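Sample entry (594 residues):
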Amino acid sequence: MREYLLGNVAIARGVLEAGAGLAAGYPGTPSSEIIDTLSGIASRYDIHVEWSVNEKAALEVAIGGSWAGTRSVATMKHVGLNVAADPFMTLAYLGVDAGLVIVSADDPYCHSSQNEQDTRRYAQFASVPCLDPADPQEAKDMTIYAFDLSERFRVPVLLRPTTRVSHARSDVETGEIPEGRRRGRGFRKDPARRVSLPVNARVLHRALIDKQRDIERELESAPWNRLMLRGDVGVIASGIAGLYAEEALANLGADLSLLRIGTYPAPSRMIEEIVKNTSKVMVVEELEPVVEEMVEIVARRCNPELEILGKGSGDIPRAGELDLITVRNAIARMLGMSVTVPEDIPSTEIVPPRPPSLCPGCGHRAAYYAMRKAFGKDAIYTNDIGCYTIGISMGTVDTCLCMGASITIGSGIRFGGDERPICCCIGDSTFLHAGMTGLLNAAYNKSRMTVAILDNSTTAMTGHQPHPGTGVTATGEDTVRISMEGIAKALGAGHVECVDPYNLEESVDAFIRARDFPGLSVVISRAPCRILLRRKGEGFRRYRVTDECVGCRQCVEFNCPAIEFDERASINQLCTGCGVCAQICPKGAIEVVK
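Predicted structure, serialized as tokens:
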């Protein structure tokens, strides 16, 4: 059967076809739709699906499932693997029972990420296989193969879709989804393989090293590694770059040798074959020169005179994502052919800037406005990862490093000697993911600052997934709803308040009290995401500007996309009726549309 599937949906389909019984993840673009898809059909296929509180928890849940004999998958984005790196590195030693696949979706060009790290480096670091799909079909097929590979060698297997694979759509040949029980036979005690004491780890590390040659031999024959020898000049391309290279060669009419790679470790014998039979090769891959480094090693032994073009030579960019035009032009330059400049892409000089903006009526904008009124422009605003980071235009985002870092960086700035007011901003899901230890650390070490938890009751940035503060699981079941206020008090905050950001006066007063508290204070600014409210069918009021407007522009400073200005203010159709602009206007010139 053929189905038109999103790449992430194809991966979810592969999880089902492989007979997996457990899926855990933390939402992160471009990986989120995998768990989103599985959560909607979990009961139908007898699979446990969860949004875990963070990637480390997700991987550890999947490890437990594997050790209980159930095929399991953990999903995350590339930076999420940093959070899960502690169990990931040791898991390679301890190994798996039932197949365990870790989907770590890379994001070349940082479409929605803070860096461009390459998951293949983690595969090298941990000595585990990594599969690099080029399209949704390969993504589905590799997912199934990954479970088999994991069980054959008793190691976890990484699947590395990139943004263009995860979010591409194409026809996918689907197979049968097995019926029947997906759970395993239960956990079997085996301390020598399951307890990472030094005496065991030393033995297990040697065993992992001994597996490497057999793993490489297995991957060598994988169908996603294909070599075509056609001449003295060649191209070696991996993952989605292989699609670009193949199409570029057809477009140029160039009959070159081509090696397409989809697995890591890369197929050393195929690399040796193309290296021996060419005088010049171009290595095309996104992000790090993982394959290029291996080609250089092989060439030193088999063909020292080989000219290698790629990231090292500057012919292929090391940063950002590749595309057909970039790859075509690089190959054309190598062959001395004319370079194509796409004419349908407008010049940046005539395209108006479109900086990201918080949604109209977003509670975060109101919280930032009140925060700035209370703390002033000279205060230090350490921020975190989430849609609230877009509030940089409000002047309340001075730092953004990684999940949970706002609180600990704020503490470091305070203990580094800066006496200015400090307000750390973190979202509700991010706080539960990685902020609680930072708050505990700040309380324990007597850090004097304010932490603002911007609670919109969802994980908005990645598609409105639930978290422990929403009272609903990934599959829609009611569950415990944790209290942000209770956690903040239990972790040692000396002053805790919860406010409605749409009540501007109340919010400003709350932030002033928090600012003046002689210790660690927490303000929880709680307002449900406006998109969620709209989906629930809750009606919004709309506001309009009256003739009393004097053009003072104070409402424009609120930075809401629904407010326009041309000699005087006006409110467009984007208005969701939060009413904050009416509270800001000094002339009372903004009112509800009757």
